[in-house]
Amino acid sequence: MNPFLTPPATTEYAPFYANYIRLAGSDPLQALCSQPPLLHQLLDGLSDEQARFRYAPGKWSIKEKLVHMIDTERIFAYRALRIARGDATPLPGYEQDDYVPLSDADARPLTDILAEYDAVRAATRCLFNSFGAAAAARCGTASGQPVSVRALVYMLAGHEAHHLQLLQERYLPNLA
């Protein structure tokens, strides 16, 4: 039985994440399976030069966006692991705008970033598939806000859905 088919209550996550929860759909575990093929399809044939494209000044490149997605997935999965295992230690937030410039994403080959993405997603899927109903329902604190393991898988799937949408709407149509 998939313990993640029941969406989290609004008390299980910070209001900031409501859109991600909505974007995750009705089965976030299925979303974690369907998102990688879509991402690969969207980026198939993209050169390293094209993957450094930014749709506006000050916006992340495609490579930076991908590394941001990987970083966020790792952080959300780590939070889920800690909370699922009953660790009540409040978990700190992270500042994405500090992480991206230090990732050196634009210097990396796109193929390497995609391989890392695939490895992280495989590990994330294994982790969430290992959780039963009790683990999925456990709550903790991250970034000073309550969060459940159930909410974290929805947030993760919704976060990626958000960035896939941005790739489709703002990046890929503007590539030369």
Automatic annotation (TrEMBL):
<feature type="domain" description="DinB-like">
    <location>
        <begin position="38"/>
        <end position="166"/>
    </location>
</feature>
<dbReference type="InterPro" id="IPR034660">
    <property type="entry name" value="DinB/YfiT-like"/>
</dbReference>
<dbReference type="Pfam" id="PF12867">
    <property type="entry name" value="DinB_2"/>
</dbReference>
<protein>
    <submittedName>
        <fullName>DinB superfamily protein</fullName>
    </submittedName>
</protein>
<dbReference type="InterPro" id="IPR024775">
    <property type="entry name" value="DinB-like"/>
</dbReference>
